[in-house]
Each structure stands twice: as C-alpha cells, then as structure tokens.
Amino acid sequence: DDAEAMLEQFRDFRIRVDQVNRGIRVELENAPGCAFVDGEIIRGIRELLSAVVRDIVYFHTEIRPNPVFEQDSSEGISNTVFEILRNARMLQADSEPDLVICWGGHSIPDHEYDYTKVVGYQLGLRGMNIGTGCGPGAMKGPMKGATIGHAKQRTLPGRYVGITEPGIIAAESPNPIVNELVILPDIEKRLEAFVRMGHGIIVFPGGVGTAEEILFLLGVLLHPDNAKMPFPVVFTGPSSAADYFEEIDQFVRLALGDEAASLYRIIIDDPEEVARTMKQGLTRVRDYRIETKDAYYFNWMLKIDQDFQRPFDVTHEAVAALSVSRELPRHELAANLRRVFSAIVSGNVKSPGILRIRKHGPFEIRGEQVLMDALDRLLQRFVRQNRMKLPGGAGYTPCYRVIR
Predict the structure, then answer these.
(1) Which of 29, 31, 175, 321 has its CA 20 to 30 A from that of 282?
(2) Nearest-CA neighbor of 153 among 177, 178, 118, 124?
(3) Partner residues linked to 128 by β-bridges
(4) What is the DSSP letter of 375?
C-alpha cells in the first residue's frame, strides 16, 4: 500500500494516450510483466486500465470546463457525480435496488477477510450485488464470496462495482473481481457516489479510511431532510471484532449522540443475519422509491450538505485549523471529523500527503479534550491492529500528532 515505493520500482513504466479516428488508443511502455500472459495483456487489466483513462479524460475534458457542472453549488457537484457514473455506464435503469456497498479496511487479518467472504456469499445467495472501494481486504472479500452465491443461484455475471479516486488507486489497486470500475475525481465525490448508487451499506472492521466513510455516512443521514428515508446500515465482523465496534460505537455516541448510533445496527459473527437484515432493508428502500417516485439507480432525494461535498485540500494549515468540538452543530462536527480522518489517509497512502509529511512533519490535530482523548485511543487501536498499513516491511510511522 506504498504507492511511492511501487512507482519507484516501475519508474520506467509509461502510459501514452493517442487520439485515433474512432476514439483513443492506450500504449504501454515497460509495463510490469505480471500484467501479461504469453505476450497478451490480461483482459481484466485491460478493462480496468481503460476505465481509468475513460473517467479521468472525461472529467478533465467534458465536465471540468463545462459551466453546467458548476463546482461551487451542491446541485452542480451532484450532477457531476451523476454524469461521471452515467458516462461509465454504471447506472442501470432496469435493475432493482440490490446494490450493497461494503466498506472496510485494506489491511485486515485473515480471519476477518474470511468473514467478509462468508457475508458476501450470503448476500450473493439472496440476489444482491456488491460495491466496494475496489481494493484488497474487506473490499475484495465480499465480492469473492458473492461470486459463489451468484453461481449457485445461476445469476452470473453479478455486478462487482469498484468506486475509487486517482489519489488512492495506486496504493489500493482494483482487485481482479471488479467488473465495473469508475474513478471519481476526489474522495468527496467518491463518497457521494457510494451513497447515491448504493441501496444499503455494510461496514467491516477497518482503519482511518473506514472511519472517514462512517462519519460521512452518519453526517449525511443525520440531516433532517433524510429522517424518513430508509437506508439500511450494518456494522459487522467476526467475534474478535466485537471490541472494535464497541469502541467505534462509543466514539460515535460521544461525538454525534445516540441519534447517530440509532442509524446503524451492529451484528457480530452472524453472516446470515447480516444478509437477511440487508435484504429486508432493500425491500423498504424499494417501497420508498416507488412511493416518492425516485429512481432505483441513483438516490436523487438524499440531501447532502455542501460541507460533505466540498473538496478538502489536506495541508498542515488546513488540518490544524479544523474545529473539533461538541459545541458545533452535529453535521459540522461530523464533517470536520471526516476531514481529520481524510488527512490521515492522505498522509498514509496518497503521494501529495506523504510528500507534505516528509517536508513539514506530522499533521497536528487539535480539538476538545474529551474528543481528542477518544480519537487518540481509536487511532492507537488502529496502529496496534496493523490497520494503518499492510503488515510486513517497515513499521508504521504516524503521520499525525494529537494535540491536547
């Protein structure tokens, strides 16, 4: 998960995009040999690489210069997300609400990975499709399990949707099961794509990236306009993850209150119950979309405050200036806590963040004493459990410092 080290290993690898009569042609120079079989590029890699080029080129040539997709308004940002998904053919108008988004860590122990596969299998048996952040670990396991469930029910090919961003795709490259890949320009639009495309969300144990996703989701669902909207959310893991989710739950209750904790259900070591709960939740989602005449394939009615949409430029000054206090409105505190975790993700795996840490030292996180104590305990748990980076190699060096 060290993008810089990987790029150094393949520093002579080049990708050239040429315009031809019927579109574009991608030429690879000094590509890694593992991408080829008997001199032919692996088909899955070719498809994923084409998706990366497609989305990055489309955003920078067709969306960014277009005043219709103004990036200063909430509507403009949501329209941008929709247009990228539409162009990538991710929006299937004739499909039922069956896309379950699975979040969780890229660096997880084997028994947690095996659990994600069993949950995916139970989801696949019940006809649900899988969307994840497209990487390894808890992003791969549910897809792998779902393939067996889909095969048994003769519903292959299933949908294995990967949603990612340019800043992280090198560190967490798409796993080979992904058969629909889309690249959003930044983490905020990526998170919006998750909650507008997905019909329910399952959260497995993870690190700071998973915590960022949880805070985004809860901050959005706490908006009064979303109070009546069914949106099934389940936190789950093997029996060994009970303490993990207890600490996450305590942090959520401390920061955002019991109402935020009422938005999810924690199910420990019971994949069948997870799948049944999600299936029942998707039925409520379907009925609600029919009642409100909203599309199945894109949740237009979900209200997302602009604080959760506006890209956060992760600099030392911006992180130090974040206000983290329970005196703030809940949605604002949730947005700022998300930015805190986003900064740590950047310092851990994104090249610009890594370079800033190397030049200026760790990010300094300040805030209310009680919240800082709870945050520090949570982050220390992530470090102890190797959730900050893949095990092996050099140990983890924190890119942050909690100031009390």
Answers:
(1) 175
(2) 124
(3) none
(4) H
264: nearest Cα among 50, 47, 45, 103: 103
pLDDT one digit per residue (tens) for the chain, 404 residues? 566 677 778 888 888 888 888 778 888 999 888 899 999 999 999 999 999 999 999 999 999 999 889 888 999 999 999 999 999 999 999 899 999 999 999 889 999 999 999 999 999 999 999 999 999 999 999 999 999 999 999 998 899 999 999 988 877 889 999 999 999 999 999 999 999 999 999 999 999 999 999 999 999 999 999 999 999 999 999 999 999 999 999 999 999 999 999 999 999 999 999 999 999 999 999 999 999 999 999 999 999 999 999 999 999 999 999 999 999 999 999 999 999 999 999 999 888 898 999 999 999 999 999 999 999 999 999 998 888 877 766 778 899 999 97
CA nearest 53: which of 31, 25, 79, 86? 25
For residue 134, how many C-alpha atoms fall within 13 Å in the half-sphere facing its CB? Answer: 26
Burial 289-324 (b: 16+ CB within 10 A, else e): beeeebebbbbeebebbebbbbebebbbeebeebeb
Q: How many CB atoms lie within 10 A of CB 74?
A: 15
Q: Which stretches within 59-97 are classed as H helix? A: 74-87
Q: Does domain 89-292 have CATH number 3.40.50.450?
A: yes
The residues pairing with 24 across neighbouring beta strands, listed in sequence order, are: 19
Domain residue spans of the chain: 3-83, 89-292, 311-403
Would the pTM of this model clear 0.70, i.e. be above it? yes
Amino acid at 141: G
Q: Look-up: residue for tokens 């909690």?
A: 402
Counted residue by residue, the chain has a size of 404
User: Residues 358, 175: contact at Cβ < 8 Å?
Assistant: no
Architecture of the domain made up of 3-83: 2-Layer Sandwich (3.30)
Q: What are phi and psi of 277, to 5 degrees?
A: -60, -45
Residues 6+ apart with CB under 8 A from 265: 233, 234, 235, 277
